[in-house]
Write a structure and sequence with these properties.
By secondary structure, this protein is mainly α. The protein is built from 8 helices and no strands. The longest helix is centred in the C-terminal third of the chain and has 25 residues, at about 105-130. The chain is globular, with a radius of gyration of 15 Å.
């Protein structure tokens, strides 16, 4: 069964997440959805379908950076599993430290999620301008984590 892609407009969710989180940091908890939905799809045997059909970050990068991207190819070393594993490990460790430091404070947890989402978006934008628009998608920790689950 062929699935419909929502990448033309799913960027709206990313913008909505950013705006709502700025207005009230507790909306930062919605970022957990972006972290768990790809894992859900992978555990259901759908592989990386989230990346190719639904991802709001990939949609935002692909739809808007195409106008300003330099269009360079990602260096081959960045596509290696060791780089992807290192990035995944780094982000999991940093996120874990943030959550531990947040304790049981909902606003601090929401801020930790929001900060992680914004950091990865910032790196994605920089990579998308220097390289091709969705270069982040080739090293994305969530995409790599889902590929490890197959």
């Amino acid at each position: 069964m062929k699935r419909k892609s929502y990448l033309k407009w799913s960027w709206v969710f990313m913008v909505l997440f950013i705006v709502l989180s700025i207005l009230d940091i507790r909306f930062g908890l919605l970022g957990i959805i972006c972290m768990t939905v790809p894992l859900y799809h992978a555990l259901r045997g759908r592989g990386k379908i989230h990346c190719s059909h639904y991802c709001p970050r990939g949609s935002l990068l692909g739809n808007f950076l195409k106008y300003i991207s330099l269009g360079n190819n990602l260096p081959p070393y960045m596509k290696r599993k060791t780089v992807k594993n290192a990035l995944l490990t780094f982000m999991v460790v940093m996120f874990s430290i943030s959550l531990v430091r947040a304790g049981l404070n909902v606003e601090r947890i929401a801020f930790a999620v929001f900060r992680m989402m914004m950091a990865s978006l910032a790196v994605g934008v920089i990579m998308g301008v220097v390289f091709k628009p969705r270069s982040w998608c080739q090293v994305c920790p969530m995409g790599h984590a889902t590929s490890l689950l197959k």
